[in-house]
């Protein structure tokens, strides 16, 4: 593909599909979602947004371009080199950064000189995030290959030892972890993906050996425990759990939300900006935790009666905690029905029935969440429902991650 051009797909009501090229001079820093105007002069114009996570086009430019592109729905298929400049779910200029256990990137750093390559991390998340690799065992000088280590408790507290050699790595790993996490905090990560089952990196359910026998599985790896202790607000997951579509979506949603919050803090947190932030996250928060949503509303309403610093800190704590609660089908249905209320006097009977049917089918597990959401989004933009247009719930992360394609 020519770097100066981008392929677009034109769809008509008749479902014809063609491809066309949008010349480079039409690229624009203009970066807001925008509906095709009601009075769009182009024949059969479909009032839908033109959007790509890479580039955005002024519809006016397209309409009046000598290429005579008809004003049908333009869906841009972005090329890989164009990824990364979206603005609705991500603050521009605010890098997206994830800490990752090095072996998940396919690096041969494991005890047996192997790796634990996770393609979702490298090929999907890697397109959007800067990945910061950390291998605690290599970084404390254990070498590759190396003896296997495990957590043991022989009555003198938990230790990290290599049973085959008797070496004790408890202190070096604890010292390293404290220092490394402090260094990582300076990088402003948005999240961390750990390797499951590792006595160094595992997030949970790490086996503790007592008197040579496997004991309870309720520990974290030494490095992981320090990471979560020093940095409680950081979204942390491990590779195994990310195979669960619900947990995966929840984690990525928290990561993008944290990035937006960091962007807000970087720009300078004010009461007005906090209100704007809260307003655009209302439905997203409700999909996770209704009671936290109410508490956060009260907090924002108390602006001016408490010190700003206390208000901002309390809001950040509530925001992070609220998003930790997993969004369920029931909660999504509640949010969708609430949003539907804004359309009740606008849609005709058939449109209402279609929307209600899509929500009900999602509730019953017959359709993935993306279906009622897409229908809802279409109507919101078609009818220019201002409050709902501003809700990040409808676009909390890049669609390319396909996080809402599960039922
Ligand atoms: S689990 Fe952690 S310590 Fe073990 S190889 Fe992977 S990154 Fe290194």
Structural description of this entry:
The protein is built from 13 helices and 14 strands. The protein is elongated. With 407 residues, the protein is α/β, with parallel strands linked by helices. The strands form four sheets. Strands 10-9-8-12-13 form a five-stranded mixed beta sheet. A four-stranded parallel beta sheet has the order 7-6-11-14. A three-stranded antiparallel beta sheet has the order 2-1-5, with no helix packed on it. 37% of the residues lie in helices and 13% in strands. It starts with 5 loop residues before the first strand and ends in an 18-residue tail after the last helix. α4 runs parallel beside α5, α8 packs antiparallel against α9 and α11 runs antiparallel to α12. The N terminus is likely disordered. The longest helix has 23 residues. The chain folds into three domains: 77 residues, no CATH class; 147 residues, no CATH class; 147 residues, no CATH class.
Strand content: 5-15%
Structural class: alpha/beta
The number of helical runs is: 13
What is the radius of gyration computed over CA atoms, rounded to a whole number of angstroms?
25 Å
Q: What kind of sheet is the major sheet?
A: 5 strands, mixed
Q: Strands across the major sheet, in which order?
A: 10-9-8-12-13
Give the overall average pLDDT.
81
Q: Percentage of helical residues?
A: 25-40%
Provide the number of structural domains: 3
Q: State the order of secondary-structure elements, H for helix, E for strand.
A: EEEEHEEHEHEEEHEEEHEHHHHHHHH
* Ligands, ions, cofactors: iron/sulfur cluster
Shape: elongated
Q: Give the termini separation.
A: 35 Å
- As residue ranges, the low-confidence spans are 1-87
User: Could you give the count of β-strands?
Assistant: 14
């Amino acid at each position: 593909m020519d770097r100066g051009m981008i392929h677009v797909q034109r769809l008509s009501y008749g479902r014809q599909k063609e491809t066309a090229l949008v010349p480079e001079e039409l690229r624009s820093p203009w970066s807001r979602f925008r509906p095709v105007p009601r009075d769009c002069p182009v024949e059969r114009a479909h009032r839908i947004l033109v959007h790509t996570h890479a580039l955005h086009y002024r519809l006016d430019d397209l309409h009046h371009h000598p290429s005579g592109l008809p004003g049908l729905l333009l869906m841009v298929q972005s090329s890989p080199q164009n990824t990364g400049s979206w603005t609705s779910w991500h603050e521009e200029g605010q890098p997206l950064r994830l800490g990752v256990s090095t072996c998940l990137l396919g690096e041969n750093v494991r005890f047996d000189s192997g790796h634990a390559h996770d393609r979702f991390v490298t090929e999907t998340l890697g397109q959007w995030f800067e990945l910061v690799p950390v291998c605690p065992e290599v970084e404390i000088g254990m070498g590759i290959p190396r003896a296997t280590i495990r957590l043991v408790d022989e009555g003198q507290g938990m230790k990290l030892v290599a049973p085959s050699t008797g070496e004790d790595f408890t202190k070096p790993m604890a010292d390293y972890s404290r220092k490394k996490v402090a260094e990582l905090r300076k990088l402003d990560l948005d999240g961390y993906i750990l390797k499951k089952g590792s006595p160094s990196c595992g997030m949970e359910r790490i086996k503790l050996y007592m008197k040579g026998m496997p004991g309870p599985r309720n520990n974290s790896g030494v490095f992981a425990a320090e990471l979560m202790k020093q940095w409680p607000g950081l979204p942390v997951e491990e590779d195994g759990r990310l195979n669960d579509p619900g947990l995966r979506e929840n984690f990525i949603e928290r990561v993008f939300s944290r990035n937006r919050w960091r962007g807000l803090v970087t720009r300078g947190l004010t009461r007005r900006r906090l209100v704007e932030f809260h307003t655009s996250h209302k439905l997203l928060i409700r999909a996770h935790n209704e009671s936290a949503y109410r508490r956060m509303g009260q907090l924002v309403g108390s602006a001016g009666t408490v010190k700003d610093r206390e208000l901002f800190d309390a809001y950040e704590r509530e925001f992070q905690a609220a998003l930790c609660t997993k969004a369920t089908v029931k909660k999504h249905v509640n949010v969708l029905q609430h949003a539907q209320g804004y359309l009740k006097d606008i849609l005709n009977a058939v449109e209402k029935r279609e929307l209600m049917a899509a929500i009900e089918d999602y509730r019953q597990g017959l359709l993935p969440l993306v279906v009622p959401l897409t229908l809802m989004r279409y109507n919101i933009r078609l009818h220019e429902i201002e409050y709902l247009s501003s809700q990040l719930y409808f676009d909390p992360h890049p669609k390319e991650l396909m996080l809402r394609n599960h039922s």
